[in-house]
Amino acid sequence: MASPARVDLDGNPIKPITICMIGAGGFIGSHLCEKLMAETPHKVLAVDVYNDKIKHLLEPASLPWADRIQFYRINIKHDSRLEGLIKMADLTINLAAICTPADYNTRPLDTIYSNFIDALPVVKYCSENNKRLIHFSTCEVYGKTIGSFLPKEHPLRNDPNFYVLKEDASPCIFGPIEKQRWSYACAKQLIERLIYAEGAENGLEFTIVRPFNWIGPRMDFIPGIDGPSEGVPRVLACFSNNLLRCEPLKLVDGGQSQRTFVYIKDAIEAVLLMIENPARANGQIFNVGNPNNEVTVRQLAEMMTEIYSKVSGEPPLEVPSIDVSSKEFYGEGYDDSDKRIPDMTIINKQLGWNPKTSLWDLLDSTLTYQHRTYAEAIKQAIAKPVASS
Ligand SMILES: NC(=O)c1ccc[n+]([C@@H]2O[C@H](COP(=O)([O-])OP(=O)(O)OC[C@H]3O[C@@H](n4cnc5c(N)ncnc54)[C@H](O)[C@@H]3O)[C@@H](O)[C@H]2O)c1
Ligand SMILES: O=C(O)[C@H]1O[C@H](OP(=O)(O)OP(=O)(O)OC[C@H]2O[C@@H](n3ccc(=O)[nH]c3=O)[C@H](O)[C@@H]2O)[C@H](O)[C@@H](O)[C@@H]1O
């Protein structure tokens, strides 16, 4: 019996489309490709410089979706094939970016080029060829909260108007230029403004996504195993690396910053709704996060330590964490977002989307994956005698 036709949120049948996905080989791209292959009839032209995280979707040729995904090893900085691929597709999704905070103050030029200059041709080709664009921005465009400028004990700090981040109302508050941490957020903000202007002046059909700390399997790399030994990934991978190596977790400036974490699989549901409901998603900027999963970084460290001990069967570390200054950890020019709570009104109203997974459950499944994937390799790396020079 044929499976029932898939319908959008308004009950209309969903037509198969071709998607040019730039940055398809990254963390979010790999989960999005998986979802599109397993649950939809859409085709993906997967563009990236790497494909390790989607290899399982590309080979062997006998995979049921083999004719619906093609990988193009392309650096969008300099490759004339990009426009042709955008023309071949109905929709372009741009995920390509440098997006690890350790790079923002140490490689500010690369960060600005990657998040602004390199995205320009993508926007231009979409606009000129009347193709729809879903562009990945960031919750970092909000910068610091208004409340962070009030004295520590001020009662208004508890008023949501002073910290909840709303797409159509909150200001974008960055630190001074010498705090190069904000090079990323500022570049993302300018590309958002450019896309918005292309929509207003030239009719570009666009959707802007502001992810709030999406986490899960395949995020970033474990230093010395599948990434550089001296590399500094985002917090999930930093803490996973510490736990796998039985080292104390490093709390930057006391771990007082707050974050809301959302499970990658919940967030991907939101992206699929955007893909398949253009009439509801076009012209919108969407926060995608989980306001119920807020913790300080210190609390995150404690939770991950407890869960990893359960998952690995090893006793918790005697010294579970140590404090490090941001200057020591990230170098000169680091600064931080104090608190990030997404307002969910717009995505709720337009797409009816709500995150489901609690922080405990998402850390449990993610740390189970980390342990299964890396524990043995770490053991071997630690046991290996250091090569003589
Ligand atoms: N993960 C999150 O929670 C999060 C939060 C906020 C914003 N974002 C945004 O979402 C997007 C994807 O993030 P991610 O977490 O998957 O990061 P990621 O680093 O895992 O993925 C980005 C991918 O883009 C590719 N890429 C970068 N420059 C390229 C180029 N010049 N040509 C071709 N490919 C290139 C990289 O190789 C990588 O595979 C980024 O734009 C990021 O700023 C992510
Ligand atoms: O994921 C997001 O939504 C966005 O936020 C991230 O920024 P941030 O949350 O600051 O990045 P993390 O590296 O995950 O750091 C989170 C917090 O943990 C702290 N941290 C990080 C690593 C560590 O070992 N110890 C530690 O205390 C950082 O100082 C920061 O306060 C990145 O900028 C982007 O990937 C993205 O745009």
TrEMBL record:
Organism this protein belongs to: Nelumbo nucifera
Keywords: Cell wall biogenesis/degradation, Cytoplasm, Lyase, NAD
Major location category of this protein: cytoplasm
Name the UniProt record assigns to this protein: UDP-glucuronate decarboxylase
KW Cytoplasm (keyword) present: yes
Family: Belongs to the NAD(P)-dependent epimerase/dehydratase family.
Highest taxon listed in the record's lineage: Eukaryota
Cellular component terms per the entry's GO annotation: cytoplasm
Primary gene name: LOC104612528
Catalyzed reactions per annotation: UDP-alpha-D-glucuronate + H(+) = UDP-alpha-D-apiose + CO2; UDP-alpha-D-glucuronate + H(+) = UDP-alpha-D-xylose + CO2
EC number per UniProt: 4.1.1.35
Domain NAD-dependent epimerase/dehydratase: 19-289
Keyword Lyase annotated: yes
